[in-house]
Amino acid sequence: MRxxxxxxxxxxxxxxxxxxxxxxxxxxxxxxxxxxxxxQVFQLTHSSAAVGGIGLVAAVPAISVGLLGGSxxxxxxxxxxxxxxxxxxxxxxxxxxxxxxxxxxxxxxxxLLVAVQAAFxxxxxxxxxxxLARLLPSDQVHAGAALTMLVGHVxxxxxxxxxxxxxxAGGLKFCYLVDVVSFAGALYGVAALPPMPPQxxxxxxxxxxxxxxxxxxxxxxxxxxxxxxxxxxxVLGMPVALFPAINAHRFxxxxxxxxxxxxxxxxxxxxxxxxxxxxxxxxxxxxxMLVAGAIWGLGLVGFGFAASLWLTLLCLVCxxxxxxxxxxxxxxxxxxxxxxxxxxxxxxxxxxxxxxGPQLGNFRAGSIGSLTTPSISAVAGGAATFVGxxxxxxxxxxxxxxxxxxxxxxxxxxxxxxxxxxxPGSSIT
Length: 429
Prior knowledge:
0% strand, 19 helices, mainly alpha, Growth Hormone, Chain: A
């Protein structure tokens, strides 16, 4: 029985391999910039609130542009769109490097660049997500999603580590510079793809197309269940905002220990992606997602109760493993349950859920932790996530019963859901 991640997409699809490799290299550079921006803001202000403001500055344009940008993704050649947005993101990274080399030291400029970067990323990411089902046969979509998650979690660990070394050796400007260079990989991976125009009739982007996409999601219980399951896991359970306080309370505030807490979730993600073979053969992706969400919650309950460092890290690794299984299952469900003409708008909604949910979850965790204790916040969040997964299984039976279609009828399985979409102009209930 295959246990490790299925590597067939890398071996059998050269376009996917180039896209995967180029995106992975660019993701490492992006994480280096994320590290550098946070450190530069703290060096300028010596304020944790100012560092936290980075998330708010990024979230507002990411969510607003992301939702409306989905209609653009469904109306143009997605390959050309990603080439354009990736080029703009490379220019923004060059601007980060330029301000660091110039030594401007302006907080407003850093915030502005973060906001512009988030806006372009909110179109780039959903457009990229539409590539998977077009580049791979249906029996390899899950493996492609797992490989994408694997390289993402590797970048979460390698990027900050490399950035720390470069920052110590030559300053933050070199972190930004490496990110600029890394965009060559991303641009090469996309440029080598075939054209990716949306299938079906031409779409005019705008509010009407946006609301049509939302009505489609609302009418499709499987898509609704997948997005709500992800929101439940992140909004109710995300624990990252508690790490500094728990580290100070349990482990004396050692910065190295804080780094281990932050890395543990990513290590779990790497383990879950690497050992995703059996999950890929399971056709019941809705059930898998809800069970993984429940295990994520139990891992966070253990994290809240744990006293020793090794047990704390073990609980976070288990939670991270379950989280990546849930995310890969969500990606697979969305790829199969969405016809191509709606894929950009649904991917945009998926992006907003995946980006905004953790931000709201960390705000919830920090607020409850301040009112009670960080441990109580972690335990309550994990328990709520477990209960949320159980309630969704009861409330949306089609999602719990959902079976991934076979390779010969994947697109056909998505089409009936489209037929249930309310007519344009009907209300969203």
